[in-house]
Amino acid sequence: MTMLNKKKILTKTSKMPCKSISLSAWLCRNGEKLSKVKGSVCNGCYARKGFYHMPNVKAKQSLTLEFMQSKEFITVMVELLQKEKFFRWFDSGDLQSVAMLRAIVLTAERTPEIKHWLPTREAKLVKLYRKEYGQEPSNLVIRVSATMIGDKPISGHANTSTVHRKGETIHGKACL
Questions:
Q1: CB 64 within 8 A of CB 21
Q2: Measuring CA to CA, how many Å separate 157 from each of 117, 130, 134?
Q3: 8-state DSSP, 40
Q4: Containing H/E element for 101?
Q5: CA 118, 138, 34: angle at the middle one, nearest 5?
Q6: Tens-digit pLDDT profile for the chain (176 aa)?
Q7: What is the 8-class DSSP label of residue 170?
């Protein structure tokens, strides 16, 4: 992978104060099923609209998935993140496997000065990972998201998120 290609791996979204990485939302394991369920948080997914449909974005996301599954992933990511203070895993897409989560955890372990955030709907993959490898490092917050609008947080996880409609009961704290 050339340096030019390395720099193109990371994304910068307008709504986030940090860089991130992006995979195709069409490849989300749970999200693909939930996208067809009315009232789910994935129904009408933002990452299946707008710029995410452009051929150059789809091509980049495809290369990013290939990169994330490569032997050089951890080494290159550690290099790319050297000047970052915060990093979001997946502004689009989600975990694909326990092996992918393991690579993310190893990256976080090698960049202890960076605060990593991983929002996911792959609660089962997170549980499988923790059963096999134990807890992730403290600089990586894995936030397991509820699947339906109005649902309570998914149990068994310290960090969770939910979505509610205006006027509905809020589970946890409201982000303003």
A1: yes
A2: 14, 11, 13
A3: B
A4: helix 98-109
A5: 20
A6: 544 466 678 878 777 788 889 888 778 787 677 667 787 666 676 666 667 777 887 888 888 999 999 999 999 999 999 999 999 999 888 899 999 999 999 999 999 999 999 999 898 999 999 999 999 999 999 988 877 666 666 677 666 665 666 776 766 666 55
A7: P
